[in-house]
Amino acid sequence: MTFLRTTAIALALAAPGLAMAADPELTVFDWAGFEEPVIFQGYIDKHGDSPTFAFYGDDDEAFQKLSSGFRADVAHPCSQMVSKYRDAGLIEPWDPARIPAVADIDPQFLNSEVFKDAEGLWYIPTDFGATAIAYNTENVPAEDVSTLQVFVNPAYQGRTSLPDSADDVWALAYLATGVTDWTEVTDEQFQAAADWLRQAHQNVAAYWADPAEQSQLMASGAVDVAWSWNDAIPLLQAENYPIGFQRQAKEGSSTFFCGFVNLKNGPGNEDKAYDFINAWLAPEAAKGLLDTIGYGHTNTKALATVGDDPRVTQNLGHIDAPVLAQTPNNPEQRERQLAEFEKIKAGF
Question: Most exposed of 74, 132, 176, 340 (fewest Cβ within 10 Å)?
Answer without folding.
Answer: 340
